[in-house]
Amino acid sequence: MPIQIHRVGPDEIALMEAVATTFGDVFDDPETYSGRRPSAAYLRRLLAGDTFMAFAALDGGDVVGAIAAYELPKFEQERSELYIYDLAVRATHRRQGVATALIDAVREEAARRGAWVVYVQADTGVEDAPAIALYTKLGRREEVLHFDIPVRGAAAEG
């Protein structure tokens, strides 16, 4: 059976939790993705909203890859951008076109919404070399810097 790409809907809380587990497993960071899971009501609102989307790559009923993206409406023109926040494929399913299929699902959603670009960032470290190769094949590379600016009064995140 071929891999199926499925957009996670607002009533698919268990699937969204499986997507989060997949990110935690693949990124070797289960605490971030499973340590303080949001409530079902929060996930339902997030998945029903206009700015967030998640797609799962399913092999049978198992999540073998996932992508999470946000639509960012722009102020300077009537257009938006889609930002790929997370993309992960389990080691057992890499080099089989799963990541490309997930990105294509976001690209199709971007086209449906009339967005002008889909973008993603990658770390320059060796561990992200396969991602950089994939993104280079699909798009134009830009050299940028990324800064995390703490929010005053926000609880320290680990």
Write a brief caption for the model.
The protein is an alpha+beta fold and 158 residues long.
Provide a descriptive summary of the structure in words.
This protein is of the alpha+beta class and 158 residues long. It has a single domain, classed as Aminopeptidase. The protein has five helices and five strands. The chain has helices at 13-26, 30-34, 40-48, 98-113, 129-138; strands spanning 4-7, 52-59, 62-73, 80-89, 117-120. The protein has a five-stranded mixed β-sheet with strand order 1-2-3-4-5, with helices on both faces.
- The overall pLDDT, averaged over residues, is 87
Q: Looking at CATH, which topology would you report? A: Aminopeptidase
The CATH architecture classification is 3-Layer(aba) Sandwich
Largest sheet: 5 strands, mixed
User: Which word captures the global form?
Assistant: globular
Number of strands: 5
β-strand amount: 15-25%
Indicate the structural class.
alpha+beta
Radius of gyration: 16 Å
Distance between termini?
Answer: 40 Å
CATH-assigned homologous superfamily: Gcn5-related N-acetyltransferase (GNAT)
What is the chain-wise order of helices and strands? EHHHEEEHEH
CATH class: Alpha Beta
What is the overall number of helices?
5
The share of residues in helices is 25-40%
The domain tally reads 1
